Amino acid sequence: MEETYLSIIATSRNDNHGGDMQQRMSAFLNSIFVLSEEYKLAVEVIIVEWNPPVGKPYLHEVLEKPNHAYCKLKYVVVPQEIHNQYKNSSKIPLYQMIAKNVGIRRSSGKFILCTNIDIIFSKENFAYIAKKELRDGFFYRANRVDIKKEVVNYSTLEEQLQFAKNKENVLKIMGKTQGHESLSLPNFFYHFPNFCRLLNWTLVTIWKKTHPNQYPHFTIDFDACGDYTMMSKNDWEKIQGYVELDMYSIHIDSMALWSAVAIGLKQRILPFEAPVYHIDHEDGWESKDAIRTIKFLESKPCLDYSIVHRAGLQIIDQKSTWNINDENWGMKNITLEEFNF
Hints:
Layout: E1 6-12, H1 21-38, E2 43-50, E3 71-78, H2 80-83, H3 96-105, E4 111-114, E5 119-121, H4 123-130, E6 138-141, E7 144-147, H5 157-165, E8 170-174, H6 193-210, H7 215-219, E9 229-232, H8 233-238, H9 252-262, E10 266-269, E11 276-279, H10 290-297, H11 305-318, E12 337-340
Parallel strand pairs: 1-2, 1-4, 2-3, 6-10, 7-11
Antiparallel strand pairs: 3-12, 4-9, 5-11, 6-9, 7-8
Helix pairs in contact: 9-11
């Protein structure tokens, strides 16, 4: 197999979180297996299995394996003994961003995409990456299209993508658009790019003059960034991955983008025709039932975004990263069990 171009990192455990978890993970993996073969892109998938439930099989025992030359699959296990060392371990069964750091540290790809296990990649998204025009000094974002959970009832990627492209099956579209990042318009307007660019330029010019210190926040695409943040391994290491906090993961994904901007990395948003599809599930952050989400967060210590915003502006002004992680972030100095396929 040729040198790995892209490492795709996600985390999970065999606890059926959100319902239909095995089906969602199967769709996620299958989309990578099929598209890496179709576009002849050397890909490594790293699943960090955090705090495996006692008495349940490991994920590698219940999920399919790659069967061609363009994709490698690695499971890295963070055992319960390590998980229990965190003070909030009884409230948070999986530390998503620390787990992704474990994957970043053990990756071999030139570029790294951190994502989640309920994503199906579009052909256009993989085609963009397969051009091999990604560069150091940039972080890459893609739109997330939320689709109905019934997509897992289809067995082939082709059928799943046809389902996802049907407007009747789309629940929500999240993310900004390259060239007019300051706009939040219905997708209909994006078919008039010259108008959007002019409107974007006008708004950005006004914002820079009236809020000069907040301009970076005005254009960063934070929407669902935990589902798609990609940059070179060198740049992930420069920002020291995700901030490792003993807290629920909400807003910690955004902190990675703040850090990237603060040290001078440039944002590049993939075309809105090249999204990833997110399979709807129970207990999602974007759940239609906001009251249920509040109850879900009640027992979990988590960040308030207002302080993340303030702190983000501070590190941009200082041109620094968060300086919270130590040199062994991502458990670099710990030997963990691995299963390679």
